[in-house]
Amino acid sequence: MLDPIVAFFQRVFSAIGRGIGLAISWLLWPFVAAANWYRQRGWLIKGPIGIVLIGLVALYGYFIWQTQVWTNFDIDYVNAYNLPARKNDAGLPVKAATGQTTTGQGATGQAATPNACERSAIVEVSADLIDFNVNQNAWISSMLLYKLGLFGMDWDDTPWLDNKASFQRGINQAIRRTTVELVDSLGRVRGTSGVNNDLQAARGNIQFDEETWYFGWSPFGPKTPTPSFYRAAMRDLQKFNTSLASCEATFDARSDNLVEFLDRVANDIGNTSAIIRERSEFHNGGWFDVRADDRFWFAFGQLYGYYGVLSAAGADFDSVIAQRGLTQIWTETLRQLRSALNIQPVIISNGREDGWIMPTHLATMGFYILRVRSNLVEMRDILAR
After folding, report:
1. What is the pLDDT of residues 50-63, one digit of tens each?
2. Which of 91, 233, 241, 359 is buried most deeply by CB count within 10 Å?
3. Where are the transmembrane segments (predicted)?
């Protein structure tokens, strides 16, 4: 009695096997035909084609390596700055011990070191994040093979090789927002001083197109690639900090500047939250949503960047935060940012929020973003009172 059932399933699996075989044959046919054609040619034709093929294989090998290896990626990178040990606000004269007691034990007091002011941790972290993006790692978005895509299809529209690019763009978004605020408010005494030239140059360079290669079509001709502009922005930020350390530049660590900075950061991650919400609500493809990973890793990179920038802001505005009673909520905000960076799934799934098979990583990331934004808004309101 079981023989007809067994025979039926044998025919089903046999048909499935033949279908898979035909699909694979159809996909491989162009390559097999090209290989047969290549074998029949002479060495005058084989040689140049072989060199080109070897070059392509090497180029793709390098491209795949750069997209998959995230050099010096560390979610605890903030710890290296030892920011809690800093007690001077950015731009203020550095305090140093002055003299000894009559017994030679202990300092008698503190005084400002001549021509020495505190560097900005915000500027230092921003410059280091640029260095991480374009020096310690290759800038993926402007690489030739990334721009060419997969047989003409944008890599962002595929499930492969685009996560690092989205992550880098997220970090870059945090840096862009920060440089704008440095120029407009933090790096000047509002209403009484002009824009700092180094910060102005950094803002202009970091705003440059993220996808420019050495050659382009509009306008046609050779171009300066994106990483060169970002490296220039990094040098501009470092120059500003050098000037600040020599008391030749200004960092205005006032409460109203911190209010404005927190407001801009809250708006920035709020925009990302809206993008994640739209993708999560209207594109529930689960593991098959090929754009979910772009949204997720962009948000992850943005939080990665702001984790360092806001940690640095806590050092640059230490007096304001302490005087206005924000220490606890500031610490909690940084803790939430750090917790969000623990979410690192191998495959990003955009399942339904009430689903039970496929997880919803986008909704989880959106939850952390909203928690951080809520705290930023609360701190802004406290400071604005």
Report:
1. 888 888 899 999 99
2. 233
3. 12-31, 43-65
